[in-house]
Amino acid sequence: MTNTTWTITQTGSTFSGTMRFAGYMGGAITVSGVMNGHSGTFTMTMPSGTMMSGWCSATATGTFDTDDMMTQFDATYNGMNSCSGAFDHGQVFMHR
Fold first, then answer.
1. In this predicted model, what pLDDT tens digit does every residue of 8-39 receive, in sequence order?
2. Which of 28, 80, 88, 90 has the alpha carbon at shortest distance from 59?
């Protein structure tokens, strides 16, 4: 895929923020979730204009795990896209 920029704020066990695709001038995708130790759940809301396909919108929910140093984030997700319908088995791997 491409690089992304995440801006996340954590308060206690909850977090929220935004994610943007590098070089893409569309809006931000919103992210929120709950973290418990090194794992948690999240929801991503992608309004129209935030993805490369422009007019489509989507919502995804998933689970994630981090390593002990919290430098690696591995997640799986599924959701619904307004243009193409349901999707599942999505994966995110972020390593710093």
1. 999 999 999 999 887 777 788 999 999 999 99
2. 80
